[in-house]
């Protein structure tokens, strides 16, 4: 008999057939009802055991977490909560699970406890739902870009350049840690290291993606990036995945259109394909927030919030307009902001972004045309020579989810900006070549994938949306 | 007027319309015919210029590599090689390309030269075709697994464990390179390093993928992996991408079925979606091989070889059978093998694998049930206690393209094997937990993505199927 998955069985409309299924026991009630799950769906299949027909020693091994093989007849369910159930004819225990020591018991565990048992936490409803949704989102990303004429490319993890400037980097090496070889000046001789020079883990694939955009037209990367920053927050990881599209002949307005269309598309895809997982997480969040004071609860439930994003236009606001709004805002006047906004040129903090999104506009916001001196060297200088064609997409509850820009395509301007920041031209000769040979307007953005997953699942700690989070002092598993 | 891509224009069947297109000049013949490409297809669109209507100074700037914006009328082409062409009404040069210095001239460049100009090499037909096919293959991978009920997961790049044993690792660190902090024994104090212990770049996501298979059922990873091995060959990279599915309740026979079905599916997908790119590469390889002596030429052309894989069953052969075949083979008897096969237990070298695939069976081969002592600790020991449930898929021209196994699911056997290899249990406590709590038969494999791309494109050096190859002494770009 062919073994079927739980999701296949729950979708069967032909009952009274013999079936075979393998999975892990979630609960075993009254020596009679096994709730069996195999990860294919958030739902369990109920397996009804006539305990008088089974050996007592066998039944004792049906414990939470045990792997079992069930055969029996698929019938219409008498109980509520499911359409079908299995009347069990045979049970084989594949792997026991000692109830005295198995950590994932059928009760509420804290997320902190589950992080310590990250290798087992996808055996819970919450984490299996999160990871199924994450997988759907990942596929939606590839599908969106593929259907829109983009080519996927693999930008390198290991980089010999440290000019990207997006953050602190990890060094990678095969030199002896204690006694590295030294050169004649007494400095570490990186010529003897694996790559013949100092090498680091990338903070972004953007610069390399630009090279491919300037030949293949529309490209995207989707891979790991790294930050060696000592940030122990619920929004930062040392290793996370980034989605970075880059498009030739596209300006900042096109970039905003792309960002908005992209996010709406992938969220729609999840709304369509993960209804049961979302329903579970929606309930979970709603119940969790019941214990909070009214003022700290979300104004919208999870699914409502996702639909709000897909159904509404993102508000596009220039940095200059945003500063005006913030300067005249209540929290600024009443000195409730930690960083008060006094003048044009101030860098916006998370509190300001959240005010704009959650209190003022009450919808996703795209801020654009930022002051040049608070943004990266590669961003296109506007004719005012004060602002650059940068954009940030801000989301409720998350803050910045996308950062992007039109890139500086003029060789002379780019060289001036690099010189002002002491970035040697030899480091980025190939990047400058793009401006020497057939340069053109082009734009792109970066989206931190885990932040998108947080938004789509309602999880509030980024450590809970990646299988094995890497953070300061932590590389367990 | 909406700007269209070259591929969109070439597919138009409505002519006599005004069109706008942007791209890079490939050639400009007779002051009249611009071949324009924007990366959307291997084909150029021909733009016909009536030079008497344009300024001579402007026409001089139409050089290979220049970015231009063309407007004009799309008409049926008079020449051969294309259905439509553009009668140009306006030309705007977006970015010049100095013909004296631009490296990618319309002539044959060696692959070595193009590797030094990797940031521009996708402006050639060969590399743009390779990268478009690679992108299609990547999508085909995600599509195959998604449609077959697998969940994508992101296994970590950074690992605190060095027990995976698949190869030499890179250390990642933020400690001072010259004067690292020392502990009381005078050793480097990795407690002060970013992760609080020594950390490395992963060689495989398998062990972590097993944790998710044992909860979500069917999962796969598709991400970078690393080897700090000093191998300067045409088949090895220090950084490459690996596809690793892992499935609960699946044995070695199921694993072989999955591997074969998977490869056939993704290659069929490319045959269907990249016909023009494949046709170009097929011609390229055929012409390249003309200069070789008959005996060194491929027996099949590229497309023929891909169809051969999708249309034929892979031959499944046990290691023991393979040893018999090799022992009695001509090259063994005539001592033509570098490593002669004398007895059962010998590790197979590339020359043996190629003999089996290319000379003996003349089709892809799956070897299985290898001697335990030449394979990894986590592979399922057979009842003979001499062999393990390992499999390697061998491809013509490539050799090993997939390595996989059924995993040892028995706690006591796994512990014994780890002890024999001095792998401390504390290092892999979470991996052992999978065998303590609801263990079950499970299997998976790893496929080096760049080797698949080599096979699908006919490229013979792995450095030519990844944008920016990382190899010993080389992390340029």
From TrEMBL, chains A, B:
Occurrences of domain Aminoacyl-transfer RNA synthetases class-II family profile (ranges): 131-467
Chemical reaction(s) catalysed: tRNA(Asn) + L-asparagine + ATP = L-asparaginyl-tRNA(Asn) + AMP + diphosphate + H(+)
Gene3D superfamilies tied to this protein: Bira Bifunctional Protein, Domain 2, Nucleic acid-binding proteins
Major localisation: cytoplasm
Keyword Cytoplasm carried by entry: yes
SUPFAM superfamilies reported for this sequence: Class II aaRS and biotin synthetases, Nucleic acid-binding proteins
EC number, UniProt record: 6.1.1.22
Pfam families assigned: tRNA-synt_2, tRNA_anti-codon
Family according to the record: Belongs to the class-II aminoacyl-tRNA synthetase family.
PANTHER family linked: ASPARAGINE--TRNA LIGASE, MITOCHONDRIAL-RELATED (PTHR22594:SF34), ASPARTYL/LYSYL-TRNA SYNTHETASE (PTHR22594)
Protein name, per record: Asparagine--tRNA ligase
Species of provenance: Winogradskyella jejuensis
